[in-house]
Write a structure and sequence with these properties.
Elements: H1 13-19, E1 26-29, E2 32-33, E3 39-40, H2 43-56, E4 59-63, E5 87-90, E6 102-105, H3 126-139, H4 144-165, E7 170-176, E8 179-184, H5 188-197, E9 203-205, E10 209-212, H6 220-250
Parallel strand pairs: 1-4, 4-5
Antiparallel strand pairs: 2-3, 5-6, 7-8, 8-10, 9-10
Helix pairs in contact: 4-6, 5-6
């Protein structure tokens, strides 16, 4: 854990209030917790945090490294809630594969960053900025984000059908846009391994979740192929885990 931060339970507003002290400067949160298990933070909770920060004179900081740049079907995930942060961190998709990160801030939040107080050896370099501009040209084109939303709905519907067929393997489909998670009943690592055997790379997260983060340019055919591979993996795992229970019941 990063020094200087107090961790509080998920969506516990009273715990957040109790954690505020004389030295508190800001509240930092992911609008959708990726590593934490693709847990979507309720818009009303983000609004409550915004109100709390305004009352206490604190900065509200959003980590949108994973959720930003079209991943949720909006350019930024916070737009789903109508709550704007004071500071926001971006990276990953903003460079379209080129290493790039950015820190966005309101004029009020950035007023302390005067000349000489903040710098970066490679900050604002022309190649990175050209890459970022090229990414924005694609993402801000008419229909791009709408397409992400449409494919997300298709993907989630197909994953929900798999959950219905294999309840002993998958308990729940989570997420927004193309940031999706499968909360597993079996150990998430087993699902990751089974999908790898199907030549599909996924990654485990907290709360026994397997994350699915396909490229934003994924096609309907690729969604269908991915679902077929997930279904084959779940079928094998269901047979593996259901057999011992059936034998135990017979005994």
């Amino acid at each position: 854990m990063v020094d200087g931060f107090d961790q509080v339970p998920f969506e516990d507003l009273e715990a957040a209030k109790r954690a505020i002290g004389p030295a508190t400067a800001a509240i930092l949160i992911e609008p959708i917790m990726g590593e934490g298990g693709v847990r979507v933070v309720a818009p009303e909770f983000l609004r409550a945090l915004r109100q709390l920060c305004d009352q206490q004179g604190l900065m509200l900081v959003f980590d949108e490294v994973q959720t930003g740049m079209g991943r949720t079907g909006e350019l930024f995930a916070y737009q789903r809630s109508g709550v704007a942060p004071d500071i926001m961190g971006l990276a990953k998709a903003i460079g379209g594969g080129f290493p790039l990160g950015a820190c966005l801030a309101t004029a009020d939040a950035a007023k302390g960053m005067t000349a000489g107080t903040h710098g970066s050896t490679f900050g604002g370099n022309p190649l990175a900025m050209a890459a970022g501009n090229a990414v924005l040209d694609v993402m801000l084109a008419d229909g791009f984000l709408d397409r992400v939303k449409r494919l997300s709905l298709l993907f989630k519907q197909k994953l929900a059908a798999i959950t219905d067929r294999y309840p002993s393997v998958i308990a729940e489909v989570r997420g927004e846009g193309l940031l999706l998670g499968l909360r597993a009943v079996v150990p998430a690592g087993e699902v990751v391994d089974a999908l790898r055997a199907e030549k599909m790379i996924t990654v485990a997260a907290g709360d026994n979740v397997v994350r699915l983060l396909p490229p934003l340019i994924i096609t309907e055919d690729e969604v269908a192929e991915g679902v077929r591979r997930i279904e084959r993996a779940c079928e094998r795992l269901a047979k593996k885990h259901d057999r011992p229970r059936a034998q135990g019941a017979a005994g």
